Amino acid sequence: MNPATSRVATVSVIVPCRNEERYIARCLDSIVATDYPRDRLEVLVVDGSSEDRTRSIVADYGARYPFIRLLDNPGRIPPIAVNAGIRAARGEILVRMDAHGV
How many angstroms separate the CA atoms of 85 and 94, rounded? Predict the structure, then answer.
């Protein structure tokens, strides 16, 4: 571990989404653009069974950026997605971000 980042908290960003192909890339681009140390960051996109290209877009980002993970939300509603993200999160700090957010 880098000594400069060992004092920096690990942050988990939870992004609940469903059918967000028009917005999810912009959201993920804004997260990737952060100057927060990537080894201290994870992004959990919790998808509620999207019927558009949302899942494939997130999978492409995950292939390029290993700190981005796609999780399933079979319940399809945001509160269930947030709870799934919390359970999967490894971060000391949890942040909820909407798929429309940048």
Answer: 9
Q: What count of residues does the chain have?
A: 102
Closest CA to 84 of 71, 97, 99, 100: 71
Catalogue all structural domains in the chain, each as residue range(s) with its CATH number.
Answer: 11-96 (3.90.550.10)
E strand spans, 1-102: 11-17, 41-47, 68-72, 93-96
Which whole-number Å values give the CA distances from 95 to 4, 37, 80, in the listed order?
22, 15, 15
Tens digit of pLDDT for each residue in 24-79?
999 999 999 999 999 999 999 999 999 999 999 999 999 999 999 999 999 999 99
Q: Tell me, what amino acid is at 40?
A: R
